[in-house]
Amino acid sequence: MGKQDKAKEKGGASASPDRLAATLLLDAPASRVRGVSPARAGALEKLGVRTVRDLLTHYPRRYVDLSSVCTVAEARIGSACTIQGTVHEIKLKRPRPKLTLVEIALVDQTGLLVVTAFRQPWLMDTVRAGAQVAVAGKVEFSYGFKRMTNPYLEVLGDEPATGMIIPVHPACEKVSAAWMRRLVGNALEATCGVLDPLPLDLRAKYRLMSRGCALRAIHFPQAMPEAHEARRRLAYEELLMLELFLMQQSAERSRDVEPVAHVTDGPRLRTLAASLPFTLTDEQASARDEILGVMAAPRVANHMLLGDVGTGKTVVAAHALAAAADTGGQAFLMAPTEVLARQHAKSLGVLFDAAGVTYALLTGSTSAAERADAVARAAAGEIDVLIGTHALLEDDVVAPRLTLAVIDEQQRFGVDQRAKLLSKGAAPDALFLTATPIPRTLALALFGSLTLSYIRHRPHDAARRTTCVVAKSERGRAYDAAAAALARGEQVYVVCPLIGKSSEERDELAGKGTAAREGDAEEAFHPTVAIEDDADMADDDVTAATQEAAFLSAKVFPDHEVALLHGGMPAAEKQAVMDRFRASEIGVLVATTVIEVGVDVPRATVMIVEDADRFGLSQLHQLRGRVGRGSLPAQVFLVSASKQEAALARLRAMETTDDGYELAAFDLSLRREGDILGNRQSGASALKLVNVVRDQGIIEAANADARAIMEVDPLLEEPDHAALAREMRALFAQERAVVGG
Q1: C-beta separation of 13 from 195 below 8 A
Q2: How do residues 326-381 score in pLDDT, each as one tens digit?
Q3: What Cα–Cα distance (Å) separates residue 286 from each residue in 70, 516, 628?
Q4: Is the pLDDT of residue 692 over 80?
Q5: DSSP 656
Q6: If DSSP codes are grouped into helix, strand and coil, which group holds residue 333?
């Protein structure tokens, strides 16, 4: 191969004009693709497809493999398969006023299959008696016949389709799956010869297809192994681009600045460690040593401490704060809520006082005089640690020697907020804390630029916690357990998300297109979850929750005080409620939101979560971490009115394990990363193909390769990396990451 050929293969400057034009077309509007009319362009935009690149990465969600068609007689009950046959009869039925279903009698040479399609009346216009069709789905048996409910259905025409693999792309009412296949095919034709951004040595190292071949193979594979190889190539590309983006953003924060190498054996740190009323667990001590290790290094630290609820992340972070004071620096500790900030000031204040670390608290409700004093002392360098909420982000809050920024529950802050806190110092070390249980592979994918520490076990395992899923009709069991706890002098949480809304209204809040979901067998399999984090609780029905609190007070717990907590209450009122609950003056706390419930109340031993199926498992696990924080055993009741087996299976997993990381891995295997993260995490939207359960090896490889590239070419300026740099800029043109997510 000559030099010119090698340059072409690497995607260098010598590439042909046709290949350059094909590559540049990726970022052109989707309307440049043949067949994308203005009306279709508008429909595609609603699917998130705006450019040719978006169309090419609008990957099939699955395939109908007509090369492995089985007969009706061969189809096993309970298994998923593809059956090809002739439509004997098709009927539209209306079992209820607002419910339509289409019933198709499909026959082949061996028998009859009954196909039921809910809320898809348009099938009456597209499927005729005598038509050849293929259906793919799960086979069931009832009323004497084998059946499929909401399978994928493809009208085949007169010719047999043996050997075909049909991709099933996400579609919409105005752009059918068939039209989507046509448009994707046209986009592939228009971008034929597109340059490959991956360096040739990486493609050879892992035996990866070229990008052009991979795009064609993932959309229109000749055989399923080809589709798997294409997905492997494109998933690796997604991860490598994201890791490089995160690492470059991290490096940008410390460019042209002098990093601080913190003192990690100073007197304040030693005194603080000696004043602890308990001994750190092995995991806590290991995390402390890892954090101090990166702080002591002569480079800017970007570290994340992941710890399940109640594992002691705050006390570990206290050691880092003391190290900053020993170094002569200052530190900020930012918490998402005032209740949590006050709790930090109270719990850490005792340790800081003993160690000689000066500190102050700054929140939205801090009085004007106290605020002025704290701001002035911080500006004068007289305060070692400033603990606060978003109030720390105000322009007049400055610390001239800021060397450490600790952000608690970092996922609760926006990218701009995290950036603003870090910008208050030249290049402070950053320590991010999160109670969200994120498996290591997912953490590597999303936080590839960070070093990581884990604390997986709570120090108070003696306080056993049980979880029980109960049907809504049987929630009296939960009330009985709560009443028994109250009689023992203990306390109860009742979490009421979206309470008072009908299931139809809740589906509307979860997202439009219920009918479309019900018309897709795969979508129907994935449980509808409306609440992945506290941002999803912003529109709680406060009026209905007030009525719920009144009902509980009058009918269920008449001998105990029942109080209400919701996000719309003034800060002072919320603080007063939490103070009274902590002081055991309130027996039952009804919360429409979990935002303010992140405090230690050792006598809170029972939690009842209404509509539990609306939560993600990680959010449920964090919720139940609010009980059992003392020495008393705790009970959690997950109340659900759902009849969906997949949703109930998710909830039952909460009964079998108390390990948040096991639950997160289970949730990932059952659902999808985008569902769980909501793509709120910076860069997460780039991961369209990655599955962290299945792709652990790819994630590890991409992370290691990105670090190796950054070591030798941090600005991606070498010729071999030119196409890589351009592609990364194009992918993340609208995104700006801050380490920590």
Answers
A1: no
A2: 999 999 999 988 888 998 999 999 999 999 999 999 998 899 999 999 999 999 99
A3: 56, 49, 25
A4: no
A5: H
A6: strand
Say how far apart CA 385 and CA 349 lie, in whole Å.
10
**CA nearest neighbour of 592 among 571, 623, 618, 555:** 623
Q: What is the DSSP string of 515-584?
A: HHHHT-HHHHHSPP--BSSGGGGTT--HHHHHHHHHHIIIII-TTS-EEEE-TTS-HHHHHHHHHHHHTT
Confidence bin at 10 (pLDDT 50/70/90)? very low
Residue 421: closest CA among 711, 38, 413? 413
Radius of gyration of the chain, Cα coordinates, nearest whole angstrom: 29
Q: Is 51:28 a contact under the CB 8 Å cutoff? A: yes
Residue 458 has pLDDT above 80, yes or no: no
| pLDDT, tens digit (0-9, with 9 covering 90-100), for 43-74 | 999 998 999 999 999 999 888 877 778 999 99
Predicted local distance difference test score (pLDDT) of residue 659: 82
How far is Cα 192 from Cα 705, in angstroms, rounded to an integer? 28
SS3 105: strand
Q: CA 536: distance to chain centroid? A: 12
In one-letter notation, the amino acid at residue 81 is C
Using alpha carbons, select from 500, 594, 505, 591 the residue that is nearest to residue 544. Answer: 500
What's the pTM? 0.70
Residue whose tokens read 């960070």: 450
When pLDDT is cut at 50, 70 and 90, the band that residue 13 belongs to is very low
Which tokens go with 380?
């004068």
Residue 235 and residue 695 in contact, taking contact as beta carbons nearer than 8 Å: yes
- For 416, other C-beta atoms within 10 Å of its C-beta total 11
Beta pairing, strands 111-118 & 604-609: unpaired
The answer to whether 609 and 495 are in contact (CB under 8 A) is yes
Over the chain, what is the mean pLDDT?
Answer: 84
**Alpha-carbon dihedral sign for residues 92, 93, 94, 100:** negative
Q: Kindly give the pairing relationship between strand 429-434 and strand 402-407.
A: parallel
DSSP letter at 428 equals: -
Spell out the residues 6+ positions from residue 219 whose beta carbon is closer than 8 angstroms to its own: 59, 60, 167, 181, 184, 185, 188
Tell me how far apart the alpha carbons of residues 246 and 170 are, in angstroms, rounded to a whole number: 29
Which residue matches tokens 């007049």? 396
How many other CB atoms are there within 10 angstroms of residue 612's CB atom?
28
Q: Helix, strand or coil for residue 255?
A: coil
293 in Cβ contact with 265 (< 8 Å): no
Annotate 478-525 with DSSP letters as a single string. HHHHHHHHHHTT-EEEEE-TTTT--HHHHHHHH-S-HHHHHT-HHHHH
